[in-house]
Structures are given as structure tokens and as C-alpha cells.
Amino acid sequence: MDQVDPREAQMLQMYLNEYGQQMEILSQQLNLIEQQRLESLGAVETLQALEQSDDGEVLLPIGGGAVVRVKVLDPGHVMVNIGADVVVERTSSDAVEYLQDRITELDALGKKVAGSIEQVRGQVNEISRRLEAVYRQRGQPPRPAQGGQ
């Protein structure tokens, strides 16, 4: 390869930037999935603790690190958001089962998104190597990679 097309380096840099943006979006999605998973785990723990509670009293976070002690009037029933802002009443055991199923789904989705991140990372690495080779061939120092590495 004697001649290096300057458009190739420009195109590779563009791809590198786009893949960097994709990695950022996927990372944000993974963080949201993990946040939902942790919230669901916390809800399961709280419902199980409430079932074992003799007096039905729990600590309710109200924000800013403050909590109040409250007595749950009907610990056997829970309102559960099942999506699209639809809330249904379920027994505590049904709510725990629903939340555990949600956790399983979130785990699977998280693994899928993490796999996508690894695929994009592999593409970024390949493009970075190719871009370095192009710059070496042109006798120029490589530009720093932008976005997501």
C-alpha cells in the first residue's frame, strides 16, 4: 500500500467517534438497568422483612437522608407498577415473585447490553489499530482517539 487516501483516515476517525458515542449510550443503558435491578432487589428485601415484622413498622425514606418510622396498614398487599404507568394491587408474595422475575429479566438484559459494549469496544480497537497504521504510513503522529475509550 504505497498511497494512503487522506479520506480513509478521516472516515476511520469518524467511525471511531461514532462508536465512542455508541459505547457511551450503551454504558448509560447498562447503568439504568443496574439501577432498576438494585431497586427491585431492595423492594424484595423490604417486602420479605415486612412479612417477618411483628408490628408492621418500617423505616420510610423521605429524601435528604431522612427516614420516618411508619406502620403499614395492610402489609399483605402491595401496589406494583407493571409498566406504562399501570399500577396493580398484588399480594406481598405475588409482588416478590413479580419483582424476582423482573430482576431475572434485568440480569439477562444487562448481560446483553454488556455484550454489545464489548462488541463495540472490539470494533473501536480494530479501527484504532487501522487508524494508527494509516498515520504511520503517512509519517504523521496518530491523533488521540475521541469518545468512549
TrEMBL record:
Superkingdom, natural source: Archaea
SUPFAM superfamilies named among the record's database cross-references: Prefoldin (SSF46579)
Major localisation: cytoplasm
Compartments it resides in: Cytoplasm
NCBIfam families in the cross-refs: prefoldin subunit alpha
Family designation: Belongs to the prefoldin alpha subunit family.
Functional description taken from the UniProt entry: Molecular chaperone capable of stabilizing a range of proteins. Seems to fulfill an ATP-independent, HSP70-like function in archaeal de novo protein folding.
Name this polypeptide is given: Prefoldin subunit alpha
Gene name in the database record: pfdA
